[in-house]
Inverse folding.
């Protein structure tokens, strides 16, 4: 299983964002410099069904990508939460995955006292789980 490094401080930022709306899917982007994750970019979920699906606000997503580019960053990951479900890509997540080189980070709040974060690459309908290393 491939290993991916995701600094603990970024995981904390993602969890902080997810916990602002624990009953809805929350989403955002992670930027990287030279392949190392360095920044998070929360993006509003504009899905008409935010309790079970995410759709990034297009203007916020474009703005975040612009800030990333201007900072010399590339897209490292797209994150979202599953308020009730497991930390695994749903059929909808797989069908809508549009960035095959970006890691898909999923945070499960099924047990809110212990959120679970897992990472996957979703390419052409195929799911590859990765082992997340979260150093301090």
């Amino acid at each position: 299983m491939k290993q991916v490094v995701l600094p603990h401080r970024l995981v904390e930022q993602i969890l902080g964002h997810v916990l602002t709306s624990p009953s809805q899917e929350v989403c955002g982007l992670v930027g990287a410099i030279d392949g190392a994750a360095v920044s998070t970019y929360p993006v509003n979920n504009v899905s008409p069904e935010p309790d079970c699906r995410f759709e990034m606000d297009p203007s916020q997503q474009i703005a975040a990508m612009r800030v990333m580019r201007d900072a010399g960053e590339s897209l490292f990951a797209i994150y979202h939460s599953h308020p009730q479900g497991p930390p695994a890509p749903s059929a909808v997540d797989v069908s809508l995955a549009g960035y095959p080189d970006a890691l898909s980070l999923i945070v499960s709040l099924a047990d809110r006292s212990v959120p679970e974060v897992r990472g996957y690459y979703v390419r052409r309908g195929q799911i590859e789980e990765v082992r997340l290393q979260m150093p301090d």
Notes: Helices lie at 8-18, 58-70, 91-96. Residues 45 and 56 are 5 Å apart (CA to CA).
